[in-house]
């Protein structure tokens, strides 16, 4: 059995839709006895909203919030990695929240807009309750996300956050958005944790397009889609036109086995970090 996982925005969702060819390839992949899932920086609520607009995608698992929230194929929570109190304090007290345009807070399936900030940036029609900072300190948040007007500002604040939260906070930068999770929580570790819980032992195939996909692309020897950033393309083993192309090329391909770069990477990094709650 092989495990395929891809990023959502810009990788599977392109031009506001998931292509018919990609959907068909996912069906073929799963019919061949393999498993498929989405690994995204989005929260489960915002991912479900996007899938409602573009149509459902058959999944065996969903990993949201850059690995902090793991769900099954029906979007039911399996486990999550909560930001420790010290990590929440670092972020909530940091000037990064004073100067950002928008801020979204995630706690399980719930999402909130930090009080005083603009609505959710991807689809403003998705309305979330406003949450005061003091209330945010008390919730078991697993991701805090902020948005800036330009990439220069986002890069500068991402560096400042990484320095202030060293050892406590993992910083994920994608274009003008910064997501913050607990230290060592990322897409790679989310996949590893899921595989341990499910007792899956197989090769891992991944694809992405932006900065928060770098960990899994580097660690699993993954692919970049053709629209990926230059940094992601350089990190990838190869560039593909689409997720569907990647899946179809690997169905029944004996070259993608335990001796491949991806297979060796999974064995080499088999230890799971104990940062998650749940099983």
Characterize the main sheet. Answer: 8 strands, mixed
Rg calc: 18 Å
User: Spans of 5+ residues with little confidence (pLDDT < 50)?
Assistant: 254-279
Query: How many individual domains?
Result: 2
In spatial order, strands of the major sheet run: 5-4-3-2-1-12-13-14
CATH C-level label of the largest domain:
Alpha Beta
Order of helices and strands: EHEHEEEHHEEEHEHEEHEHEHEHH
Shape: globular
Predict the CATH topology of the largest domain.
Rossmann fold
Identify the CATH architecture of the largest domain: 3-Layer(aba) Sandwich
First-residue to last-residue Cα separation: 22 Å
Number of strands: 14
Mean pLDDT over all positions: 89
Quaternary state of this entry equals single chain
Helix count, per DSSP? Answer: 11
